[in-house]
Each structure stands twice: as C-alpha cells, then as structure tokens.
TrEMBL record:
It comes from Spirosoma montaniterrae. Keywords: Signal. Residues 1-22 form the signal peptide. It comes from the Bacteria. This is Asparagine synthetase B.
Length: 422
C-alpha cells in the first residue's frame, strides 16, 4: 500500500512539474530587450521553419510569443536576444489580458516568412553609395535572408515570385540621381546597357517600364517598401508617363516645355499636386520635386524629431503592426528625399509618423497590395566628407527605433491581414 502511495505521489509531482514547465517563449520588445533588431531575425527564422509566431501588438513594445523549444532558446542566446519562459497557465493569462476589450492590445499570428527581394544596382555595378542602404544593412544584421534584383529582373517579369520588395534610393526618372555625388560612371553605364538590351532608346523609358512593373507587382498583391528618393521618383515617373521630363544634361534632348501641366497624378501611389524641380535646384542637381519637404535644405542636418501615431491594435491592425516600437518619438534623419510635404501626400494615404512640418512615414493600398514609404536615407546614418555617407555599424545601434520601423514592414506580409476601419 505504501508503495502504491509513493508511486502516486511521484506521478502527481511529475504531472505538476510538467504543468509548470515552460511551454512558450516570450521575446520582449520593451527596454528589457538586449537586441531589438536581432529579435526580428529570430521571428523570421521561425516563420521560415514553418512555425507560427504570435505578435503581441502594444504589449511591451510589440513582443513575440513562440512555442518553446531548446532550439529556440539556444538561438536566442547565440544571437544575444533576451527572452522569458512562460508556462501554459502564464501564456493563457497573458492572452486573456491582451484580449480584454478595454486595453489597446491584440495578438496577430504570423504564419509564413515572406520571400524578400531588394531592388539595388549592387546587382550589376559597384554602387558604392548603395552600400549604405538601410534595408540591406538591417536585413544582414538581423540575419534575414534576401535576394537582390535590378531592372532586368523586373523587365523579365520576375517580381510575382516574391512577396516583399524594397526599393533602394533609386532615381526612376532616368536622371541618374541628379547628382554625380551618388552615381558612378559604372552605375550609369549598367543602366544604359540594360536599356539598350531591352530595346529602349533612353534610360528614362526603361525606368518607366520598371516603375510600372513595380506598381503592377503591388497592385497584384505584393508588398512594396521604399525609402528616400526611391519613393519620390517612383511616383514622379508614373505621373510623367508619355511626357519627357529629362533635360538634355542626361539624355541629349530637351524636356517637354509643358511637362508640368501634363503630369497625371491619378497614376501615382502616394503623391499628388507636386511641382518638378528644374536644373537650377539645390546645388544644381539634387532635388526632383517639391514632394521633398526639405528640398531647399538638401543634405543639411535634421531639425528634430518625428512622432509615430497611436493606432487601435484591435481595429486598425495594419498601422498598429507597422508602428510597433519601444519608442514613439524618433529622431529625424536626412536623405536626398528627407520627408514628404504634407500637401503633396494624397488623402488616400495613411500618415503613420509625422514631423512638425512634414510626413515621414506613410502607408497605402493599391489593388490587392500595400505599400509603405519612409522618408530619409538611414535612421542612424552619418556623413563622411562632402555628401558621402559612411556605412552604419548596427552593432552600435541594436535598439534603433528608426530601424525597427523597417523590420516591422518585413514581418507584416506574414500576418493575417485585416482591413483598417479608420
């Protein structure tokens, strides 16, 4: 009898231990996180391994909840990512807390890793300036895999193979960035060679075809993320379809004298009612249009901070995901297109972050797809001599709130998307 009692006690103790065992891993994204940027890489890796990840919107900075495993805990330790272990009871209590209709929180299940591509001239030329591309830097740092494409892949129709496309700081107008400070002769020749190969007489015509291919990708259900001049010049090229807006400085023939009046803003994604910049702009060849709210200052130092808006995690799920952060006041950073003039942003675009006089972070939908435009070049960037930039070492900025916005966009296509109500 005593033996039976002993066995029963051992069985009961074992059951209690099993119940108390950690069955979930919480990756906090508040100030207790040792490396915010690499935490996104953990989430992406688990999605790529066909595991689900719960994104806890507005809970401790937008934390992640994942089924526990020894491999997960090891991966977090190796990458220097903070984590906490939860029992089933603790995880259930947390979900109940988040589900309370009176709190601005939500659980969004991420299901599948997006196939990521970055549009960059590093595919075909040295492109030293683009070694400082913020998205390339943060994807590499977070250990999130990606492929690189350029004009030729888009012209061949390869985009539908992928889910998420980032545009580097490109000039889609065919004016080679309007500055030799950022475009090498090798870059220009590479674009001219592609245009010739595909039967275009000018680079501007080829770039328009590329811009239309990007818009078609987005309309068909793809997700587009663009920063700096990539966002601005994409819309300029779309609005100027069939109109020569390129001066003889770049293609040997003059621009249409009536180009401004012929722009069609119905063809753009985000911007309207903008005025093209002539060759007498800042430093002669730097700005494209007055979409850029800081065009007159060019590469001057940023003026202060911009603020993220607070969205309902239960009703405005998409912008809530895209603004998850441990900080909501973010220092401004510069670029060829630093910020977007408020009156140039279409009413259909949702502003998610703004400065005192400009919009910095905007979102929109077209067809079955979505896009996000983010002003500025590098959230933690600094310049070397002249306008040359030095690559950012993200080991020095593992908590960068500006870079977190980029990585929010990387995870967004993995969510069960819900339409926003406001």
């Amino acid at each position: 009898m005593k033996r039976h009692v002993s066995l029963w006690l051992l069985f009961s103790i074992g059951c209690c231990a099993l119940c108390a065992r950690a069955n979930s891993v919480l990756i906090p994204m508040d100030d207790r996180q040792a490396n915010h940027l690499k935490a996104y890489g953990i989430a992406y890796k688990w999605l790529k391994d066909d595991q689900e990840v719960d994104w806890l919107l507005n809970y401790r900075g937008g934390s992640f909840l994942i089924t526990s495993s020894a491999a997960l805990e090891t991966e977090c330790r190796v990458r220097g990512v903070s984590f906490e272990t939860l029992s089933d009871a603790q995880a259930a209590s947390l979900r109940q807390q988040i589900g309370n209709p009176d709190v601005n929180m939500n659980v969004v299940t991420l299901q599948k890793a997006a196939k990521i591509i970055v549009y960059s001239p590093v595919k075909v030329s040295p492109s030293e300036f683009e070694n400082t591309d913020a998205v390339l830097l943060v994807l590499t740092y977070a250990e999130i895999p990606y492929e690189i494409v350029y004009d030729e892949e888009i012209l061949k129709g390869d985009l539908p193979k992928y889910d998420w496309l980032h545009l580097h700081h490109e000039d889609f107008t065919g004016q080679f960035g309007r500055s030799l400070h950022r475009m090498t002769l090798a870059d220009m020749k590479a674009q001219e060679d592609i245009a010739k190969k595909y039967g275009f007489s000018k680079v501007s015509q080829m770039k328009l075809a590329v811009a239309k291919g990007i818009k078609s990708f987005c309309t068909g259900g793809g997700y587009l993320f663009a920063m700096c001049s990539g966002a601005e010049t994409l819309d300029i090229a779309l609005a100027a379809e069939g109109v020569d807006i390129v001066s003889s400085s770049y293609d040997g023939d003059g621009m249409d004298a009536d180009a401004q009046s012929k722009l069609d803003f119905d063809k753009t994604l985000a911007f309207q009612n903008f005025t093209l910049e002539g060759d007498n702009g800042y430093r002669g060849f730097s700005t494209f249009s007055d979409i850029n709210a800081t065009g007159g200052r060019g590469y001057d130092q940023p003026q202060g901070f911009f603020q993220l808006f607070d969205f309902s995690a239960k009703w405005d799920v998409i912008p809530a995901m895209l603004t998850q952060n441990h900080e909501h006041i973010i220092k401004e950073f510069i670029g060829q297109t630093t910020a977007f003039r408020k009156t140039a942003v279409k009413p259909s675009a949702l502003v998610m972050g703004e400065g005192k006089t400009s919009d910095r972070y905007i979102y929109g939908e077209v067809g079955r797809g979505q896009w996000t435009f983010y002003g500025g070049h590098d959230p933690e960037g600094t310049r070397g001599g002249g306008s040359w930039r030095t690559p950012t070492d993200l080991n020095l900025h593992p908590h960068s709130p500006g870079y977190r916005l980029i990585l929010n966009n990387v995870l967004f296509p993995s969510a069960r998307k819900k339409k926003r109500k406001t």
